[in-house]
Amino acid sequence: MFDLLVAGATLPDGRTGMDVAVSGGRIAAIAPRIEGEAAERVEAAGRLLSPPFVDPHFHMDATLSLGLPRLNRSGTLLEGIALWGELKPLLTVEAMVERGLRYCDLAVSQGLLSIRSHVDVSDPTLRTAEAMIELRERVRPYLDLQLVAFPQDGYYRSPGAVALLARSLDMGLDVVGGIPHFERTMTEGAASVEALCRIAAERGLPVDLHCDESDDPLSRHVETLAAETVRHGLQGRVVGSHLTSMHSMDNYYASKLIALIGEAGLHVVANPLINITLQGRHDTYPKRRGMTRVPELMAAGVNVAFGHDCVMDPWYALGSGDMLEVAHMAVHVAPMTSREGLRAAFDAVTVNGARAIGLAGYGLAVGAPASFVLLQAADPIEAIRLKARRLLVVRDGKVLARAEPQTSRLSIPGREGVVDPSSYVPHAAG
Ligand SMILES: [Zn+2]
């Protein structure tokens, strides 16, 4: 007797008509037709069953604060930074936990069950760290929340940041963060990368830096990050987030750099929604897009994932916890609209993110935790096209969220009927 049986699903690897049986919180079997009773049976009817979405780059301490204490009128990074500075003294632990819980409700409804959040640890009260640690415990039964100690105002530029970063790690934050391009000089930026990698090596922690989030083609801290990763033996545990300066770099230098990134086993996280809105803001026309070189990094074998970065906060008024919206923007910005590219974008919001943040037991496999999402779409590319509804969200065998399929009933004379957007599919290829 199984606890749950999802019947007739399409899997991300392309297998169709597959049943997935769940027992004791784990996947007991994956096969075309599984015999046996189940406490609950869900008919997938050919829809896509995917591992949960992963957001490897987010700012949970700021999310859902849009409008506090005022709106970002210009929508620029600079006004966003100023606004965050006005908001920080007003933040309370209770309000941050409450907003975090509300965001995690939204995330779960979107099948997003693992989030790595950068936590601004530049305020001496460290209220942000306290709140996010409490939130991590509160959501632990249903969502993985990893916390990065992020010296947002600069590790060397902001007085006291060196000690605050250490204190926040002592409190129990999980990952060492940084922002080398925001230090006063290139030299201090490089020194911060060296110091932060050393701290990570000493404490046995991963590293995730906001790195080169700039349109300056000479912002090359990722080169130092790759070198320090190798020097400290941190291969596989280091993420370079944003890397937007790579968009503007000289092609010859970029070709050397991509090889170094690969050699160091760096993971790369692009944040397409934010990169396309915050980069290129000093340009008139043509306007640069600012997202890092995703297809080229992928072609070189580098693990590239996409992050949401912001939802309804001082920097970004939009967003809905939908990693398919993130992938949808990425394929436009990159652009990566080849069949291979579209398919790779789905990996970038699922399995690649899991690899980047070191999730254990991720994926649809017999014996793995029964965590998955049933989408109202026929396959990964259709899921991105439709930003498909999440019909069923399951974690460790427990159903966390359910939704009815999205449909609409027409009352046009002669065209009456029910419209199911997911029934509009490509014609079978010859
Ligand atoms: Zn960020």
TrEMBL record:
Keywords assigned: Hydrolase, Metal-binding
Domain of life: Bacteria
GO BP terms, alphabetized: cytosine catabolic process
Transmembrane parts of this sequence: none
Key word Metal-binding present: yes
Domain Amidohydrolase: 42-400
UniProt keyword annotation of Metal-binding present: yes
GO terms of molecular function: cytosine deaminase activity; isoguanine deaminase activity; metal ion binding
Name this polypeptide is given: Cytosine deaminase
